[in-house]
Amino acid sequence: MATYEYQEYPKWVSTPDGRTLIVAxxxxxxxxxxxxxxxxxxxNLLAPEVAPEPHTSEWDTLKQKGDAIGLKVDGRWSLARLxxxxxxxxxxx
Length: 93
What we know:
By secondary structure, the chain is of the alpha+beta class. It has helices spanning 26-33, 57-68, 79-88, and strands at 11-14, 20-23.
């Protein structure tokens, strides 16, 4: 019966700069691990969060109208969506 011989290479490695790759031997692994980590993106490069528009008195008025006709109003709806849902219910705003 043949005995199993463990082979370390080739193997997957994750480099400091975030890449994942297969290396063939210890020398290649050492070269890849010697690379410097990529700089983190600065805060100004990240997409800004879009804050929802605050509800206006018109939105509150339409919400009350929607509640009166039995429409389930979601607080995340925009003014245009609320108006469209009320119109779809057969009660133009």
